[in-house]
Every structure is written in structure tokens, then in C-alpha cells.
Amino acid sequence: MTDTAASLRDRAARLAPRGDMFIDGRFSSAASGETFVSEDPATGRPLTDVARGGAVDVDRAVRAARRAFERGDWCRSAPGERKRILQRIADALDERCAEFALLESLDGGKLYRDTLAYDIPGAAAILRWYAEAIDKLYGEVAPIDPRHLAVITRMPLGVVGAVVPWNYPLEMAMWKIAPALAAGNSVVLKPAEETPLSAIAFAELCSANGLPDGVFNVVPGFGAEAGKALGLHPDVDAIAFTGSTAVGKLFMQYSGQSNLKQVWPECGGKSANLVFDDVRDLATVADRTSAGIFFNSGQVCSANSRVLVHRSIAADFAELLRARADAIVVGDPLAPTTEMGPLVSTKHAERVRGLISRGLDDARLLTGGVRPVPGLDVESDRAFVPPTIFADIRSDSELFREEVFGPVLGITVFDEEDEAIELANLSKYGLAASVFTDDVRRAQRVPQRLAAGTVTINGVDAIDVTTPFGGFKQSGFGRDLSLHAFDKYTGLQTRWYAD
């Protein structure tokens, strides 16, 4: 039986989420005693007060993480033991999937059906995958003079700071947490201030299922306070960051100002979707293009927000996209019929509306815009933005160049393949791209010329735990997922045995 929005709201009223920080195996308040409110963007209702972590709290968490690392009951435990504990935590997360899914839906405005079907199961699956990898990573023996022996092995770095965004609160945190813990590190996580609740609940879950105290700590708070303190802390060995390019650059500065800690930034995106005139099934391309920008209300760093389409099919393709956008059901994220919910906050929705409003001056609006969503049946519409499409986007416009991070699609026309590639690469970002073509040679040729970390051919935003995710240029150089993630959380040690 499918839950109704009313039944889910009733469950939500009994949820009572914790907003405390979690340090050294226990909940605590901020040293300052300050809190901030986490609220449901779909209703404007407060969910709970959250501890406002600052430099003192970050220092306490880092000290706890360092003590745990030096104690060695995690980093020097047998690989099979770490594997067993992380698998147990993954199982526990699966068992409480509905609870965590509801918590994330309320905290960030995400569709409950998506958090239930994808986000929380995905987070558990990522943790389980890295747990399985622990006892399958081998060292090396160097081919040196046989009178000597040189062994190369991976060593955990120590204390890893993780700073994560709000669009996939727990799943994206797991991109950092899972390989860092699997490698034997201790972790201090700073979740986004908009969506801290699932990370806090997960920390308690870890403690209850065998993770030693101090190995995983969560300090909620604001970026300029807790995030900056983590970036500057002299006893943090690495920072794994996903967020804006501007903040990623700050973490690079923090590293230079402190202890030269490793920084692994995965930053913004402005992904291009190249649609060539040889495609036969334009309707399917429109379906996938629409999903590539409007899924999760467009709040995806690799969203296909720029459509580059051949002039000969541009008018027909634009109409197909407009029809799909107009058919999207926008509303309560807990309702089973809703296809797009609110943005994460009123503040972010106002930013997106500002970009749309400025775009009206130099592009043609096909649908959506700054108007209220028609027929929206929610308590508050402040955080809702309708699916929006602009045509005739110029390559020098703000909508072409800047990351919107909302349900806004821009269409630009090209005439030749070289022009399409030039337009696609005309961006400071290089996170992802899509190429739609029925020409197999073009499908091989074009991706080689695109500056993008992931290029999906005849699809959008392909991603899996088995493949690395990250970008080029100002999208940063960090790579999450796959076995390559262990490169971020381990250092190579050579042990040379002389004769």
C-alpha cells in the first residue's frame, strides 16, 4: 500500500529528529550554546533546532578523531573486521530506510519516493561496496635488485574532514565517508546547514553498530564557521569537499594557510547536452533531456542545463521539451503523484528566480519563469520554482555560463559539429556532458574532444559506484566513487628492506 502525503505527515510529526552534534560517540551541544533552525522547505515549518558548531567544536571533533586514529582500534584492525562492521552499519541503514528517507525528504524538500527508492538504499549500497573492497586491495613488490626487498603499501592518512552539499545529503556524504572509513581513517563530517539531520542520525547508527568512538564525528554548522575551521585545522590530514567552485577555492587557500593538507574538491557544473540532427527518436531524447535537468528540481551539479541542438531540429525539439516541462506535476514532495518538489530553501529559490528574471532580458522564455507554480497545493509556495525553459540563449549570457542549480534549461542552436563542441567547451566548468547521436563514428569522435569528467552517449548523467565521478577545469579535480577514491584517503608507503 502506498503511503499518502497525509499519513507521511502524520509519521513526520512523530519523528523527533536530533539536531545535536555527534562527537566521540555521544551527542553534545555547541560550545557556544547557539542553535539554528532546520525547516521543511515545502511547508516552512521548523523541524528541530540544530547545534551551531564553531571552531571550538571542530577542534574537539578533530581531537577525538585523532585520538581514535592513534588508539588504532580502527585503523590497525584487521581488514575483515572493518569490513564486518561497515556491512553491519549498511544493513542497519537498510532496515531503517523509510525513517531516513522521510527525514531527508522533510529536511531538503526531496521527493519521498526518490529518497525511499534511490537515495537511502544508494547510500547503504555504496557503504557496502567499499566494505567489500577492504580486503581486496593489494600492495606491490617493486622489481628491484634481488638482494633487497621493496614493498609498497597503502596507509590511511589519519583524520579526514568531509564537507558535503545539501542536494543528496547522506548519499553524497557516503561518497566521502565510505572509502575514508574503509581505508582506516577517522572522519569529521560537516554536513550542509540546510540538511544536517540524516548525517546526525547516521552517526548515532554507526556508534550503535560497532564503530569505535571518535572514528566518525558530525559537526553541523555554517560554512564560514565550522567549514572554515575544519579547512584551517592543523591536525586534519585531508579535506574532501563537494560544493561551489568559490568555496572549493577557499579550501585550497585554507590548506596553504595551515598544514598543506590534501584538498579534493568536486565543484560546480554547467553540463552541455549535444543533440545532433542524425537522431531518429527525438521524443526519447526529449524524455532523457527533461529528466537530465528537472530531476531533483534541477539541484544536481552535473545536471544537463545547457542544450545544444542542431538548427534543423531545434524548433521541434524545443516544443517537445516544453510539452514535457508543462506536464510535470509540481507539489508536496510527500505526495505519491508529485514529480517535482520545492528547492532546498526559500533563500535558494530567490537566487534561482533572480537568475531567471535577468535571463528574461536576453533570451526567449518558452515556459515557466518567476511566476508561481499553477495550482500548487502546499502550505507555502516560497521555495517552489516551476520547470523553466529558455530558447535563443547566447553564449555570452549569464544563463549559458553560470550554474543555476535549479529547474532551468537553456537551448542554444548550432550548425556544425565543430561549433557544437566549441560551445560545449565554452565554460569554466568541466563536470559532465551528454551526446545524442545515431552515428557510431560521431559517438566515438565527439566525446574525445569534450572537456568533461563523464560523457554519457545517448543518455544523461550516467553514474555508478564502480566508475569515478569528477571533472576538469573549475569543476575541480577530486574524484569520488570507484576504487580510485582510495587514492584520496591513503598515502603510498615504501618499505625498503636492505640486505
Plain-language structure description:
With 499 residues, this protein is an alpha/beta fold. It has 16 helices and 21 strands. The chain has 2 domains: 5-267 and 476-496, Aldehyde Dehydrogenase, Chain A, domain 1 (3-Layer(aba) Sandwich), CATH 3.40.605.10; 272-473, Aldehyde Dehydrogenase, Chain A, domain 2. It has helices spanning 5-13, 55-71, 79-95, 97-108, 112-133, 169-182, 197-208, 223-232, 245-257, 282-294, 311-327, 346-359, 398-401, 417-425, 440-445, 486-489; strands spanning 21-23, 26-28, 35-39, 46-51, 140-141, 149-156, 159-163, 186-190, 216-218, 238-242, 262-266, 272-275, 306-310, 364-367, 388-391, 408-414, 429-430, 432-436, 454-457, 472-473, 490-497. Helix 3 packs antiparallel against helix 5. The radius of gyration is 23 Å and the shape is globular. The protein starts with a helix and ends with a strand.
Keywords:
alpha/beta, Aldehyde Dehydrogenase, Chain A, domain 2, Aldehyde Dehydrogenase, Chain A, domain 1, 2 domains, 499 residues, 21 strands, 16 helices
